[in-house]
Amino acid sequence: MNGDSGERVVTRRNALQMGAGLGVTSLAGCLGFFTNDQNVEIPPLSEFRGSGTLVEGRPAPGGTSIEDLPDLSGDLALYIGGGEGGIYYEFVEMLQEIYPDFTVHPNDNDSASLAQTIVEEVEAGAAQADVFWSIDASSLGFVADNDAYDPLSDTAVDSVANDQFVGDDNAWAGVAGRARSVPYNTEELNESDIPSTVQEFPSTDALQGSMGWAPTYGAFKSFVTAMRLIEGEDATRNWLSDMKEAGTERHGNEYAVSQAVANGSLAAGFANHYYAMRVKNQQSDAPIDLAFTEGDAGALINVAGTLKVKGTQRGELVDDFVRHLLSSEAQEYFATISFAYPMIDGVEPVGGLPTIDELNPPDIDLAKLSNLEPTLNLMDEAGVSG
Amino acid sequence: MTIREQVSRTVDRGTDGDDSAVDVGLTLLAAAIAAVLVLPLTWLVVDAAGLGVRAFELAVAPKSIDVLVRSVALVAVVTGASVLLGVPLAVLTVQGEIPFPRFWTVLAALPLAVPSYLGAFAFVSAFGPQGELADLLAPLGIESIPSVYGFAGAAFVLTLYTYPYVFLTTRAALLSFDGSLVEAARTLNTGRWEAFRRITFPQILPGITAGALLVALYALSDFGTPNIMRVEVFTQFIYARHVFARDYAALLSLQLLTVSAIILAIESRLGVDESGAYESSSHRGSIGLELGAWRYPALLLPIVVSLLAIVLPIAIFGMWLTTGGPGYQVGRLTFSWEYGVNSAYVAVLAAAVSVLVALPIAIASVTADSRLAALANRVPYVGYATPGVVLALALLSFTLDVFPAIYKTVPLLVFAYVVRFMPQAIGSIRTSTLQVDRQLVEAAHTLGRSRLNTFRTVTLPLILPGVAAGAALVFLTTMKELPATLMLRPLGFETLVTFIWRVEETGLYGQAAVPALVLICISGLSMAVIVAQEGR
C-alpha cells in the first residue's frame, strides 16, 4: 500500500492536480490522507461478469483475487487506447468505486497516437501520463523502442502466463489477448475443410468465391504485417492478389464479416476471434465456428497491454494497478465482456475456445507490427487498399 | 531604418500631446501585449518550414487539395443557405406585420444559443444509425434510414446554428433604413418585388454581407460539427494529424489561415458602399410587406427551424436525463460535478486575465490617438479570427520545442483562451470608454488628482459596466470552447466540454445530458449579455 502518498515531490504530474485544486477529489484525497483508511468493499464476482448464453455456468476463476492485492490509493494519470476504451474504462470505473481514495485521470485517443505523444512528451521532459494502456502490442513496442518506459516490477508481470505477452525488460505486460481466426459457417464447411496455413487458402476449392475480409481494419493490417515479416514481401503480395482473384469479398469491418458467415452469405472469412463470439452470444444457434491456422500469420495473437511511462513518480501505484488488471476478477471481466483471451492461468476463454496454450501462434516480436508503411504499400500494389 | 526607429517615430507622430510620456508607456504596453498574443502563431511557420521543399509538394498533393475544396465548398454552401434562411426571416419579422413580432424575433435568433457541436451531437443521436428515430421506426419495419453523416449533414447542422448571424445583421439593417423611400417608390407605381429589389435590397446588402462574413468564418473554423459528422475539412484533418505529423498539420493550419484571410479580403472588396445604408430616420422600418393571409403560413418557417434547432436537442438531452439514454456498447463514463467546477475555474481565470490585458489596450486605443495604439487595438483580433484548433496546435508545438515547463498546463490553457476571446473584452471596454466624458477626467486633473487616482475614482467607475460585460462574455465563451480545451488541457483536467466529447467518442451518450443542458444554458446567458449590452 502506498502509505507515503502525502509526501511525494511535486512534479508536473502532481502539478496538474493543482489545476483541479478546486475539485472534489482533492478534498476527498485530503480526508483520505487524514483517516488513511479506505472503506474497501469488493463486489461479488457476478458484477464482473457479462451476460448471455456463452457466459452462463462458468466456473469460478482462478488466479489472484483483488482481495489479496494491495489497496489502490492516490491519483493515476492514464493514457488509454480508445478502440475498446468504453469496455476497458468501465473496469477502471469499477476500481474507482472499490477504492474511494483512488482516482484515475484518463485521456483517450487511438493507441498509435498516444504512443507517439508519450515519446514526444518524454523527450521534451513534459510527460503527462503515469501509465499507458494500449489496445495493441505494436504501440507498446513503439514506446519501448524509443526508451520512453520504466520497467514494470517482476511482481506485476509474474502472473502473465506466457512470456510472449511480456515485453523485453518488463517494458509492458499484456492484459487481454485476441487471436486472428477463420470464422466458418458450419452448414457450409467442416473444420477439416479449412487448411492449416493461410498460404493454402487461395488454392483450396471449397473456399473459392466464398471468403470475406475487411482490409481497412487495423487487425487485418497487423495480420498482413506479420505475414510480411514471416514470409517476405513477394509472397505476401502474391497471397493478397491470389486471394483477391479467388473472389474474396470486401467488408467494412470484421464484425460484418462474422455476421455474413453466420447468415450463410459467406462460407468463411478472416476476423479477430471475438466477433464470432459476439454473434454467438446474441444468437446461440448461429451456425458459426472458429478455425485456427498453425504457426503462421493467420494464427497471430495480439494483446492489449500496459506500460509504465518513463519518469513517473507513481511507479509503485502503476505496478499495483497492473496487478489489478491481471487479477482473476479483471481477467474474468475481459473474458466475458469483450470475449478477450485471458492472460493468466486459471481463467478460461469463453465459449469453448481453445486455450491460448492450444493455439499455435507464429514466433514473432509483436512490437515489430508497428511498422505499417511497407504493409500499406504492399496492399496497394496488390490492389487491396487498406 | 530599423524596426525600433520606425516604431518610435510612429509613436512620436501619434503622441504630440502634453502627457506623451504616460501615453507612450501605455501604448507600448498595449503593443507588447498584442505582440505576445500573436507570437505563438509564428511557430506554425517554423514547424511547416521544417518540411522544406516537401512543404510545397504536400500543399498541392491531391489529399490537401481535396480538403481545401471540401472546406471551401462547406463554407460556400453554409453561407448561401444561411442567407436564404436568414434574410426571409428578417424581412418577415420586421416587415411581415405578424402577430407578436418580438416573440418570433427571439425565436429566430435563439439557435445561436446552442453550440453547434451540441446540435450535431443531438442530430447524430436522433437520426444516426441506432439513433432515437431509428428506434422509433424499427417496429414499423423500417430498418435503415439515410445516413446523417457526411457533407450534407454537416452543412445542414451548421446552417441551422449559424443563420442567426445573417438574420440579426439583416434585421438591424432593415430596422435602420428609411422606409419612406419604399413608400415613395410604391407611390410611383413600382411593383412590390421591384421596390424590394431596387430600394430595400441595396440598402440592407451591407447587413447581409456582414452576417455572411460571420457565418463563413464560423463554418471554416468550426471543429466539433465536422468531426461529429465525419467530414474531412481543415479543422478535422489538422486534429487527426497533429500528433504524428505535426509539420504537416502546421502546413494545413497555414492554409486554413490563408483561406480565412481570403474570406476577409473578399468581404472588404465587396465593400458595398455603406454611406447611404444605415441612414436612420423616423420611419424605423415601418413599411409593411402586406403578406395578407400568407402571414400565417409564413410563420411555419421560424416554427420548423426552432423545432429542429432548439427543441430537438433539448428534448434529446432531456430524455437522456430521465431515461439514462442509450448505451451503444458495453462501458460506462460517470459524470462528476468536478468537471463543471474545472470549467468555471479556467473560465474565471480567463475572464480576469482578459480584462487586465484588455484594459490598457482599449483605453490606449481611445485616448492615445496614435497609430500604434490603433494597431495594438486591432492586432488581438487576429487571435479572435484564428480557429481554435490552429491556435492549440501552435501552442502545443511551441511549448514542446521551446517551453516544456508549461506544456499542457492550466496557465497555457488560460493563455489560449485569452488570445481567442480577449477581443470581446476589448470591444466592450472600448465602447464604454468612448462614452466617458473627457471633460470629467480633465476636471479631475485640474483639481490636482494624479493620473492613477483619476483612473481609479473617475474613469473606472464609469466604465465598470463595460468591464463587467467583457468579463462575462469571456467567461461564458470559455465555458463552451471545445478544440483548444481538448488539445491543451492537462491530463486529468476534465471539463464539461471535454467530458461531452469523450461521451460522444465512446458512444455512451446518456451521461452527456447534464453537461449538455448546462452548456446550452450558459450559451443562452452569453447571448443575453450581448443583447443587454446592445440595448444600452
From TrEMBL, chain A:
SUPFAM superfamilies: Periplasmic binding protein-like II. Keywords: Signal. It holds the Pfam family SBP_bac_6. This is Extracellular solute-binding protein. It comes from Natrinema halophilum.
TrEMBL record, chain B:
The keyword Cell inner membrane applies. It comes from Natrinema halophilum. Signal peptide: none annotated. This is Iron ABC transporter permease. Belongs to the binding-protein-dependent transport system permease family. It is a multi-pass membrane protein. It is found in: Cell inner membrane; Cell membrane. SUPFAM superfamilies: MetI-like. GO terms for biological process: transmembrane transport. Keywords: Cell inner membrane, Cell membrane, Membrane, Transmembrane, Transmembrane helix, Transport.
